[in-house]
Design brief:
The chain has 309 residues and is of the alpha/beta class. It has ten helices and 18 strands. The strands form four sheets. Strands 5-4-13-14-15-12-16 form a seven-stranded mixed sheet. The radius of gyration is 20 Å and the shape is globular. It starts with 7 loop residues before the first strand and ends with a helix.
């Protein structure tokens, strides 16, 4: 493949879009650097899926299909019950799982490994300032270092730091869709088999599914309706209180799930929101994935991020 100039490109975000983009840039002769606020790759998360010819063609061109086939979950059947645990609805794995379904953490690891040979990864750091120069972008980092890059790309999700610095405040681009979602790990004390079980009440959902690799473990997933809340995105204890208050009084196994939340070592909590950015670039700074056109739930974010990269 013909190589381009060895441009230095900074990518913010090491989840899905960032490592996928780093892979392609390296393949075309660029020198990508990925900066990630977290101290290491983030594991865990729900299953994500790829659907349709476009998704599968891109995975094939990246050489990822054989490895993803080896680690795919095989799909996740979903069952919904009433407050006594009686089944109301069952959705088979082929309905819920797409054509390739893998755990989000496994996908992130595979993308990291495929991009790593030609990518510099910096964990535990973040961009604090972007200054365009005649020849590129001067980037200041939280750890006190400044470096020059030819291009800066925000692949840092719905709450993109790059978008905030280069395009403007988050409230100009992100719309709250009226709900919040959370996931956390817990022991599989319910004896769950393959798939998940969920309980609905108006404006609230609580579900739990067995870990695809270790049946001794499970993962909780909850959603609740609420106006936009003010909270610290880096304070898990405050977020646990919000979840507990929102789901208080629900039947089925919800009290047990909430009890496990207090000891959960890892928690994902965020609003269900949508990013709408009319123009995905400004000067030498651009956006990809959820930072440009994301929604935190709905099943299309992962495939869209890989295709966009």
């Amino acid at each position: 493949m013909e190589e381009s100039v060895n441009g230095n490109v900074l990518i913010s975000g090491a989840s899905i879009a960032g490592p996928a983009l780093a892979y392609w840039l390296g393949r075309h002769g660029f020198k990508p650097t990925v900066v990630e606020l977290a101290p290491a790759l983030r594991g865990g998360g729900q299953a994500v899926d790829f659907r349709g010819e476009t998704h599968l063609t891109v995975l094939e061109r990246m050489g990822l299909t054989p490895e993803l086939r080896r680690i795919e979950t095989g799909g996740s059947p979903m069952r919904f019950v009433d407050e006594r645990g009686r089944t109301l609805l069952h959705l088979p794995a082929e309905f819920a799982g797409g054509e390739i379904e893998v755990l989000r953490g496994d996908l992130a690891r595979v993308l990291y490994e495929h991009s790593r040979p030609h990518t510099e990864y910096i964990f535990g750091d973040s961009i604090t300032r972007l200054t365009e120069t005649p020849s590129g972008v001067r980037v200041d980092f939280q750890q006190g270092v400044s470096r020059d890059f030819d291009l800066v790309i925000g692949a840092d999700g719905l709450h993109s730091n790059v978008r905030r610095l280069a395009f403007g405040p988050e409230e100009e681009y992100v719309s709250h869709l009226g709900h919040y979602a959370a996931t956390w790990p817990l022991p599989n004390d319910l004896g769950l088999g393959k798939g998940s079980v969920g309980y609905n009440a108006p404006g609230r959902l609580a579900s739990v599914g067995a870990d695809h690799r270790d049946p001794a473990h499970a993962g909780a997933f909850v959603v609740f309706a609420a106006p936009e809340l003010s909270y610290d995105r880096h304070d898990p204890e405050q977020q646990k209180d919000l979840i507990g208050n929102a789901l208080a009084g629900l039947g089925w196994e919800v009290p047990r799930l909430l009890a496990s939340l207090q000891q959960a070592p890892d928690l994902y909590f965020d609003s269900i929101s949508r990013a709408d950015v009319d123009t995905w670039s400004t000067g030498r700074v651009c956006l990809v994935g959820d930072a440009a056109c994301g929604a935190t739930i709905g099943g299309m974010g992962t495939g869209t991020a890989v295709v966009a990269a």
